[in-house]
From TrEMBL:
Source organism per UniProt: Enterocloster citroniae
Name under which the protein is recorded: Ribosome maturation factor RimM
Pfam families associated with the record: PRC_RimM, RimM
InterPro entries: PRC_barrel-like_sf, PRC_RimM, RimM, RimM_N, RimM_N_sf, Transl_B-barrel_sf
Oligomeric form and interacting partners: Binds ribosomal protein uS19.
Lineage: Bacteria, Bacillati, Bacillota, Clostridia, Lachnospirales
């Protein structure tokens, strides 16, 4: 088993192992990607045990309800794999899907400095809530309060991940919530 060290900013989480599936080493994975079918194209995935990152070769992919069932090469019984329950499955950025215009990986948004269109610093983006209609950005303001900003074109004017900033237009009433 080879071990490789990756930097977390080079990694994207695509799923979390929830449980074993049967006794032949398969696992149920809750996908954290927009398109669970992308597992069909993946040949290798990285298991983050918390202490180390282990590259695993995907041998088989199946789908059941909202879960992905994976079988890894060399893991042939339940005893080999059950210790990895609740562990993240990662991919390197070079295996990530191509993003369209105005699309970002959540991991790249967390930590951005949020500024108003007038250049006033509001705070730091600390979370992204994924709702049905649109995402909502959670900004931790300087006073410790949270500001919720809908991720819509009317509000999000510019995202510059290189500079580490997001420029927003605050709709009337947003600061009052």
């Amino acid at each position: 088993m080879r071990k490789v060290i990756y930097y977390m900013e080079d990694m994207l989480r695509v799923g979390v192992i929830t449980s074993t599936h049967g006794v032949r080493g398969e696992v149920k994975v809750f996908p954290t990607t927009d398109d669970p079918k992308r597992f069909n194209e993946l040949k290798e995935i990285i298991l983050d045990t918390g202490k180390e990152q282990i590259p695993l070769e995907i041998e088989q992919v199946k789908y059941f309800k909202n879960m992905v069932i994976l079988k890894f090469k060399g893991y042939d019984n339940i005893n080999d794999i059950e210790k990895y329950k609740s562990k993240d499955l990662l991919i390197t950025r070079d295996h990530a899907v191509e993003l369209g215009p105005d699309e970002y990986f959540i991991t790249d948004l967390i930590g951005l400095q949020v500024l108003t269109e007038d250049g006033e610093a509001l705070g730091v983006l600390k979370d992204v809530l994924e709702t049905g209609a649109n995402d909502v950005y959670v900004v931790e303001m300087k006073n410790g309060r949270e500001l919720l900003i809908p991720a819509i074109k009317d509000c999000i004017l510019n995202v510059d991940t290189e500079q580490g900033t997001m420029t927003v237009h605050l709709l009337e009433g947003l600061m009052d919530l």
